[in-house]
Write a structure and sequence with these properties.
alpha/beta, four-stranded antiparallel sheet, 14 helices
Length: 352
């Protein structure tokens, strides 16, 4: 199972400009999490702070018992081997073909033979649907293929934690759907802890086990998908519905006067150009491709949600219960199992 990441009071600024402050959350091991937030809220800075590329002003980021904020450079180097990172643009070397790009971390950080490296690289290229493309240069392939090549490179050291910085950027909706399915399939196969930073609402609603949101330099919420998808928190509801009406403005934050004006405009029946449909609710989550193992993360998350169900608002509780399968309802004692017919009762079995 992937490593657990525990973040406590993490704060980061550049000069006098605060990026975010007092961020605390735990990424459950082996689960897929998504961090949302308007542009400029420091989501990419958050990822870079998690792997020690940027040093926070204060706080802790503990991975397998090691606080990477205060540990030595030698220890940080070792902890970084637990991570695989997919950058926005894939970050491939333009002069290297895909094979050499994916092989690069193995050649830099291990003493494996070229035969071993070839086996691992071809396996990861196959895993990401790039078999047969290993001799192509990054400039000869599509953006979607470059993303998958970047993901293959992120996987070669068998990381326990995979970070994806806006994996959908520059991709059309179809390629984004394929990449989303690929991340779910990877989690089913290797049970890694995955954190995705994205603006994509559909990805956020259908892929992760956990959702979080940064806004106004703070972590607004972080928790199981069921909790955020049914949340009444204004900024979360606005973002997941893709509406203008709410706290988020063009320059991230609206003042009270603008909020009041927009609410009055909406109350008068004027449309803001977005759908009137409220998208809050627990939509089905992507499942692994048939033939792959079940995701163990799903059961762990549902168990966690059911433990806190009694603490949630009525609408959230009802939405969560409505989303459960019949097997789930029985498992959590919400429905009595249907009794099986007795084999000696001829009225029920039809036997004579």
């Amino acid at each position: 199972m992937g490593a657990e990441v525990v973040i406590e009071g993490l704060t980061k600024s550049f000069g006098n400009q605060a990026i975010w402050r007092d961020v605390s959350l735990s990424l459950p091991p082996g689960e897929v999490s998504v961090m949302l937030g308007p542009s400029g809220t420091g989501k990419s800075v958050f990822l870079k702070s998690m792997i020690g590329l940027l040093k926070p002003d204060r706080g802790r980021c503990v991975i397998n018992g090691v606080d990477i904020v205060t540990c030595s450079e030698a220890k940080l180097y070792e902890v970084r081997k637990l991570f695989g990172v997919l950058f926005q643009d894939g970050a491939l070397f333009g002069s290297m073909n895909l094979f050499d790009n994916v092989a690069f971390p193995l050649r830099e950080h291990t003493r494996k033979s070229e035969a071993e490296i070839k086996r691992i690289v071809l396996d990861k290229l196959d895993l990401t649907g790039l078999q047969g493309a290993e001799r192509k240069l990054p400039g000869e392939i599509s953006g979607g293929m470059r993303k998958r090549a970047g993901l293959a490179r992120a996987l070669v050291l068998d990381p326990e934690i995979i970070l994806c910085d806006e994996p959908d950027s520059g991709l059309d909706p179809v390629r984004t759907a394929y990449l989303s399915q690929l991340l779910i399939d990877l989690n089913a196969q290797i049970d890694a802890t995955i954190l995705i930073v994205t603006h994509n609402i559909n990805l956020a609603r259908t892929v992760p086990d956990n959702l979080g949101m940064l806004f106004r330099k703070e972590l607004v919420m972080f928790g199981p998908r069921e909790v955020l998808l049914t949340s009444d928190e204004p900024v979360v509801a606005q973002f997941l519905n893709g509406r203008r009406l709410g706290p988020i403005g063009m320059s991230e934050e609206k003042d009270a006067a603008q909020m009041a004006q927009e609410e009055a405009h909406a109350a008068a029946g004027h449309s803001d150009g977005s759908s009137d449909e409220d998208l809050r609710g627990v939509v089905p989550q992507l499942e692994p491709t048939p033939g792959l193992p079940e995701r163990q993360a799903v059961r762990r998350r549902k168990d966690r949600v059911m433990r806190i169900l009694h603490t949630l608002p009525d609408a959230a509780r009802q939405g969560i219960v409505d989303s459960l399968t019949q097997d789930d309802r029985i498992r959590y004692g919400l429905t009595a199992p249907t009794p099986r017919p007795r084999v000696d009762d001829t009225r029920e079995t039809g036997r004579v």
